[in-house]
């Protein structure tokens, strides 16, 4: 896929580097030549231009671009102006970053396809990790439902999914299991990694060190993980 990312701050640069590493074509735009030069070796294309100027945006290959990500956060006016111009140019899909509730409301009024608040989302994920025992990572699908990666409680080790009876007791589904293994590195040293075992069956046995990928209400997942 082809992406245009506006803004080479921490968010935009990290996203551009990751998408490039995944094999996508990325055009990253910033009005700072220093930032453009800093990331030109890590992102497919980096361009210095003012994204609040319509003639400048018209030089970008919008017709061939699948997604425009507006990563400007700190400069409210520039974010709103850039978003409005991309809407005027009929970008196929616009994802915009908001840093406050007011910022989000304005972006919603402009009709962007998706609004993200990475700082808030990261803080919420961290709060859930700190609150729930054994949680490694979490992804909120709504205010109530979450997908959580958690170390398998010791009481389930050696039991099959049927024997653990997690769904019936806690109304929580085990989607899959991440199982530790050893990955060989270039210099013949090893480091731990995890393998996804696929869709679990009733006969799948939970092993020591397994990470369960759980889906359900956060209050039910909390009951499961905090039970003795």
Automatic annotation (TrEMBL):
One of its GO terms (biological process) is potassium ion transport. PANTHER family: KTR SYSTEM POTASSIUM UPTAKE PROTEIN C, POTASSIUM CHANNEL PROTEIN 2-RELATED-RELATED. InterPro entries: NAD(P)-bd_dom_sf (IPR036291), RCK_C (IPR006037), RCK_C_sf (IPR036721), RCK_N (IPR003148), Trk_Ktr_HKT_K-transport (IPR050721). Gene3D superfamilies: NAD(P)-binding Rossmann-like Domain, Regulator of K+ conductance, C-terminal domain. This is TrkA family potassium uptake protein. It comes from the Bacteria. One of its GO terms (molecular function) is monoatomic cation transmembrane transporter activity. Residues 1-116 form the RCK N-terminal domain. Residues 134-228 form the RCK C-terminal domain. Pfam families: TrkA_C, TrkA_N.
């Amino acid at each position: 896929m082809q992406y245009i990312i506006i803004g080479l701050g921490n968010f935009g640069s990290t996203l551009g580097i990751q998408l490039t590493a995944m094999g996508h074509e990325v055009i990253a735009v910033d009005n700072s030549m220093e930032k453009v030069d800093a990331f030109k070796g890590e992102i497919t294309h980096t361009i210095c231009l003012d994204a609040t100027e319509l003639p400048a945006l018209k030089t970008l290959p919008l017709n061939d671009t699948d997604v425009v990500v507006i990563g400007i956060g700190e400069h409210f006016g520039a974010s709103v102006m850039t978003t409005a111009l991309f809407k005027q140019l009929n970008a196929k899909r616009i994802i915009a970053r908001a840093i406050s509730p007011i910022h989000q409301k304005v972006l919603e009024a402009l009709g962007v396809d998706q609004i993200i608040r990475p700082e808030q989302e990261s803080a919420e994920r961290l709060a859930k990790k700190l609150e729930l025992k054994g949680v490694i990572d979490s992804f909120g699908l709504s205010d109530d439902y979450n997908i959580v990666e958690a170390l398998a409680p010791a009481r389930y080790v050696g039991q099959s999914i049927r024997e653990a009876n997690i769904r019936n007791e806690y109304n929580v589904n085990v989607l899959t299991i991440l199982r530790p293994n050893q990955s060989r590195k270039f210099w013949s040293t090893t480091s731990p990694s995890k393998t996804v075992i696929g869709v679990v069956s009733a006969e799948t046995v939970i092993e020591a060190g397994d990470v369960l990928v759980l889906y359900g209400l956060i209050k039910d997942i909390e009951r499961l993980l905090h039970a003795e």
